[in-house]
Amino acid sequence: QSALTQPASVSGSPGQSITISCTGTSSDVGNYNLVSWYRQYPGEAPKLMIYEGSKRPSGVSNRLSGSKSGNTASLTISGLQTEDEADYYCFSYAGDNTLIFGGGTKLTVL
Amino acid sequence: QVQLVQSGGEVKKPGASVKVSCKASDYTFTNYGVTWVRQAPGQGLEWMGWINGYNGNTNYAQKFQGRVTMTADASTSTAYMEVKSLRTDDTAVYYCGRSQDPTLIDYWGQGTLVTVSS
C-alpha cells in the first residue's frame, strides 16, 4: 500500500498561516475519521499533534487545527513561529487493521 | 510520568535477527496497545504493526508479515519486536509508542538504531 501523499515541503513567514495536505483514497482517509498528525524534530521521536482528524491533545497549541474534505486531510498552523519548523506526518487507518503514514512534509519558517 | 524506554542500538549482519525491547512505566500496560514504527536514514515514518497489551493480539503491515514478530510481557510491562532475516535496507531507527487506538500514539520511546551491514 502506497504512502499517503503530502507535499515534500511548505514554508511560511512568522505570523503567517500554512496548510499541509494529506491525500489518500476512499479506502483510508476518505472512509474513516481516524487521521492523526505528528511533528518530528531532527533526531527526536515524533509527537502527537492532532488525532481523530481534528482533536488536539492536552498541551498542544490551539494554533494547530485539523480538518478533512473527501479523501484529503489537512493540518493548518496559524501564527507561525520558529518552533513550528519541523517535519510533519499524517497517519490514517486504512481498514483491515492496517495503518499508513504520509510521506512527510518539511515545514520551513522563513 | 508515562515513559517508554527502548533497548540500545544494535549492529547486525545480513540474515541475522534483532529483538528490540520497549519497557513501559507509569501507566497500566494492559489498558493500551504498543505500536512499532521505523524510520530509515533520511526517510519518512513507516508503520510496522501493533500489539494489544491486554491479550497480545497483533496486526502487522503486510510487508512485514512472516518476518516480524511482536510480543508483550504484561508482568514486566515490556513489549518486544523481533525482525528476522535482516537486510541492509532494514537499517533504521525503530520506535515503539503507546497506542490508545491504532492511530493515536501518545507517548513514544526514544528510538533504537538498528544497523545492518556486512
In short:
The complex is a heterodimer of chains A (110) and B (118). With 110 residues, chain A is mainly β. Chain A has strands at 9-12, 18-23, 35-40, 47-50, 64-69, 72-77, 86-93, 99-101, 105-109.
Model description:
- The complex is a heterodimer of chains A (110) and B (118).
- Chain A is mainly β and 110 residues long.
- Chain A is built from no helices and nine strands.
- In chain A, a hairpin with a 5-residue loop joins strand 7 and strand 8.
- The model of chain A has no long low-confidence stretch (mean pLDDT 95).
- By secondary structure, chain B is an all-beta fold.
- The mean pLDDT of chain B is 96.
- Classes of the chains: A mainly beta (110), B mainly beta (118).
- At the A-B interface, strand 3, strand 7 and strand 8 of A face strand 5, strand 9 and strand 10 of B.
Radius of gyration of chain B: 13 Å
Q: Describe the global form of chain A.
A: globular
Tell me the structural class of chain B.
mainly beta
N-to-C SSE string of chain B, H for helix and E for strand: EEEEEEEEEEE
Low-confidence stretches of chain A: none
Task: Please indicate the percent range of residues of chain B in DSSP E strands (runs of 2 or more).
Answer: over 45%
Mean pLDDT of chain A: 95
N-end to C-end Cα span of chain B: 40 Å
Number of strands of chain B: 11
Distance between the ends of chain A: 34 Å
What is the total tally of β strands of chain A? 9
Shape designation of chain B: globular
Sheet bearing the most strands of chain B, described? Answer: 7 strands, mixed
Tell me roughly what share of residues is in helical segments of chain B: under 10%
Question: Which H/E pattern describes the elements of chain A?
Answer: EEEEEEEEE
